[in-house]
Write a structure and sequence with these properties.
- The protein is mainly alpha-helical.
- The protein is built from 7 helices and no strands.
- The protein has one domain.
Amino acid sequence: MAFWSGVVDVLREAIFAYAQMSHGNLAYGIMAVTFLARLALLPLTLRLARSAAVQQEAMHRLKPELDAARVTLKDDPSGLAKEIQRIYAREGLSMIPAVGCAGVLLQAPILLALYNAVRKCAEAGGRFLWIRDLSKPDVALALLVGAVTAASMATGPQPDAPAQQRLLMLALPAVFTVIALWQMASGVGLYWGVSSLVGVAQGLIVRRSLAQRAS
């Protein structure tokens, strides 16, 4: 616990330090440290995103074969499991991607520590643009961050599903974001917004790299 508190304190002090460099504006400190943290994690998140996109492409390509196996072996669960495992092994795919799991486990503590640091810093309040108090919720910011979150989801790998279902899967995270930020400090909303903007850039980079590879 002492180590965890130390990490949160270091991030909090970094936020205040960057705020002092911006004439004491806490919002700039929150956005700067959030951006730098996400930038440091970007190589890992790009690798995870590319891996997920490649896995999704492979699953889309294998869907007819997997569907046929499910129909043929619908009365033989054990045989179906072996056949699916064989198809996955042939394509070099894993039922549970180890890279993705390891990446999530590595990122989660860092982002959680940053969130806690931002939440503590936001208690100090302060103004930013139209936001009167960073320690209180702001409806306009919540709606703006919700839109950026939707854009972040839209630029990421898209599920192999009907158009209406894909639209719903894009809209739900944005709606949940707005509902959550409706009751959170605006400082946390800035952290969330910067993270989502990095997510948009990440999605565009992955799309471009996959398009170049396909061509």
